[in-house]
Please model this.
Amino acid sequence: MASSCPSVAELVAAARGLYVQVFGEEAPRVAVCAPGRVNLIGEHTDYNQGFVLPMALPLVTVVVGSQTSGQDVTVVTATEDADEPRRVDFSLPSYGSALSPGLPNWANYVKGVIQHYRAPPVPGFRAVIASSVPLGGGLSSSASLEVAFYTFLQQLQPDDGDKVSKAVACQKAEHTHAGVPCGIMDQFVSVLGREGHALLIDCRSLEATPVPLADPGLVILITNSNVKHSLTGSEYPMRRRQCEEAASILGKDSLRDATMKDLEEARDRLDDVTCRRARHVIEEIERTVRAAEALKRGAYKEFGKLMVESHNSLRDLYEVSCRELDELVCAAMEVEGVFGSRMTGGGFGGCTVTLLQAHAIDRTILHIQPLSPQHSRAEQKDPCPPNNNFREGFTGFASKMLNLN
Ligand code: GAF
Model:
């Protein structure tokens, strides 16, 4: 795992220290964590009911805290982009306007999760958040916060829902409180990720097949372009609308049900942009299924080729890449021993993911590094530097309760 990123134990220790400092009381009674993710392939397919292939990361959001006797909630966070810890206070008399989205933005994730928690009403609590998932880096910092918070609430007041409904509740929080009409991928893998595996998720049936990913000869390199992305802008919702429009013109419930033949036959009823968006989704769903099969067979070259096709499609047809991501992918592909590389996550910045032979890792990093020196200097507070090498134990795990003793 990337040596420069704090371990879960270090994050918990930092969060505990802050808790005692801010609240002047004994150590918190509960600690939980939930991972960020990297998506290997299957981009912008989840809200089209297609397939995705993410894996949980050893980068996590930790929440520590304790229940209080009243209805007051105080949450403190000490993450990257602020010098001082930030704090939000509200009370939960009747689940009224206290939970409406507002400022500060980061607190909306907490409010959203309380709003959609499946065993209301939740009691008052004090909590501290700490995270090693870079904010706006396309590694799912928001889903890891939502899922960590949901897991925290489960320790205060257990719910009787299953894991999938937990992921769905967290996805709803993102919709209503962060304003992002996201699919289910990020929350799903944060709840159900499995160590040593990627998950092939069918976003229609919500069934997942673990795909082993523990070959010691293989490395997954995540490279942060340090171009901050924000999915709350108009681009992500617009892509989703374009897909829904395409599906409706094709007479399908979703693009999952459409084929390239359907698209060609409907060509004169679709404008050019909508047609390109639909083509990306239809082909990406198919690519993802083939890629998962290739990974199972250890056919890494084939997998890598599909990764590059995915990137090119996201760049040219879906138009969610950016110059920095394209350059990082091109540079990675110049190195011998690299199987494939692509942007990962929603796009418009964030990270690339590269699959390569373990022995090629140092020369790959050396080759990529000069591309983003100004970004890395400008972002020194980022817990993860531009190049993160998940060489050992590179997959994460599902959200879980941690032992505080
Ligand atoms: C973001 C969203 F949150 C996901 O649901 C998914 O659509 C992804 O972008 C693109 O594949 O991470």
